[in-house]
User: Which sequence fits this backbone?
């Protein structure tokens, strides 16, 4: 199942945490644990969202991954917590309402800035994704993503255990940067290349959501998601104010709507009414230049043409960081090429890839090495067609990691 299972537009739910706190959940509590101890509170919140028009409910599994639960002192309960939380949400879902498995940043930092490897990150997400799949979720919703590695690891995890849709939302500031410094346009380019079914923003102010969705519009070939915050309790925008952004979101390509922090059932009801009043057919189709090819590094969106000049090939030596910086300073085309020639190159590449800012051509004449490098690279690379690799293999890499084939 790689398509969205409901007709567009779709209304998701609103805030869970702020609504639960309104019903008595203490600040700083482990939400997943508190919900299981107070199930009626969650059912009240979610049933009000269904009454407001929501057709997708997020199971409260935001932190139900091994890393987050262990920090709370909950050990060995990933499978059990996800199953029980999904079952609980299913009780609140009326006929025709889907349940999404909610996944979020797990708080692990990759080397050289932290102690975790990318495969450790993937393993944590895979454990939760498998539990959610076993629990019977209808789709996966990756929310409040703060950096590319978390998002990529979660997407790879979900797709390794299920063929259900994967939707991804980043959170950003007024410049379109996540807390980890990634441009959300780069996020769209990478996530779209990896085959997610929808992409957007959550936990972001309504105005910033609108401005950043408008930046994404020219490059989005999948539906966009608008799930903005309404503000902290006591400083929220009104339901009418939030609903006033709906037509602007829709014009920017949003077809999936909802709310985040501070957006309660009243906000969702107003958004639902506004969505009904939008004529989606009135918006012109976005025309795209086929000679402008989106790529991305971990933090930056980059655009190349079919005849891009990659310059001299860079090999993975102990001087890789200096070689990348020098090549990017001298490159007139904004692209560079790194060769992976042997297994040891992968460790060097993994530790230095974060300095890549330009579009990256990854090259190897060994299929296994190229795939490992693509898996490690926290961007969307391209293939310049100079190697002698099988077309079927390259197409597989394009589908799994978003490799751009020139």
Assistant:
């Amino acid at each position: 199942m790689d398509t969205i299972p409901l007709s567009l537009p779709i209304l998701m739910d609103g805030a869970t945490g702020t609504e639960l706190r309104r019903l008595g959940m203490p600040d700083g509590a482990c939400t997943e644990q508190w919900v299981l101890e107070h199930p009626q509170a969650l059912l009240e919140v979610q049933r009000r969202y269904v009454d407001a028009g929501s057709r997708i409910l997020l199971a409260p599994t935001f932190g139900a991954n091994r890393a987050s639960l262990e920090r709370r002192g909950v050990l060995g309960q990933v499978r059990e917590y996800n199953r029980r939380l999904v079952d609980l949400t299913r009780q609140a879902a009326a006929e025709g309402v889907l349940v999404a498995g909610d996944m979020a940043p797990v708080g692990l930092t990759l080397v050289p800035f932290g102690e975790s490897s990318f495969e450790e990150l993937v393993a944590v997400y895979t454990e939760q994704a498998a539990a959610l799949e076993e629990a019977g979720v209808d789709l996966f919703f990756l929310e409040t993503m703060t950096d590319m590695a978390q998002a990529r690891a979660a997407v790879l995890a979900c797709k390794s255990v299920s063929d259900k849709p994967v939707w991804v939302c980043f959170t950003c500031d007024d410049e379109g940067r996540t807390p980890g410094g990634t441009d959300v346009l780069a996020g769209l380019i990478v996530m779209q290349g990896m085959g997610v079914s929808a992409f957007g923003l959550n936990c972001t102010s309504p105005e910033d959501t609108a401005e950043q969705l408008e930046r994404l519009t020219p490059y989005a070939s999948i539906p966009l998601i608008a799930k903005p915050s309404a503000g902290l309790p006591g400083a929220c925008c009104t339901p009418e104010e939030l609903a006033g952004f709906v037509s602007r979101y829709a014009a920017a390509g949003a077809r999936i709507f909802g709310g985040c922090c501070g957006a309660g059932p009243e906000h969702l009801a107003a958004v639902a009414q506004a969505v009904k009043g939008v004529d989606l057919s009135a918006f012109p189709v976005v025309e795209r230049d086929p000679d402008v090819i989106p790529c991305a590094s971990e933090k930056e969106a980059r655009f190349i043409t079919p005849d891009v000049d990659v310059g001299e090939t860079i090999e993975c030596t102990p001087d890789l960081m200096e070689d990348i910086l020098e090549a990017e300073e001298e490159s007139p085309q904004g692209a560079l090429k790194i060769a992976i020639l042997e297994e040891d190159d992968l460790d060097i590449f993994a530790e230095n890839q974060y300095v890549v800012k330009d579009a990256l051509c990854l090259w190897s004449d060994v299929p296994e090495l190229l795939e490992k490098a693509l898996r490690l690279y926290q961007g969307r690379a391209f293939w310049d067609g100079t190697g002698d690799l099988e077309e079927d293999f390259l197409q597989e890499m394009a589908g799994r990691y978003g490799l751009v084939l020139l």
The two ends are 28 Å apart (CA to CA).
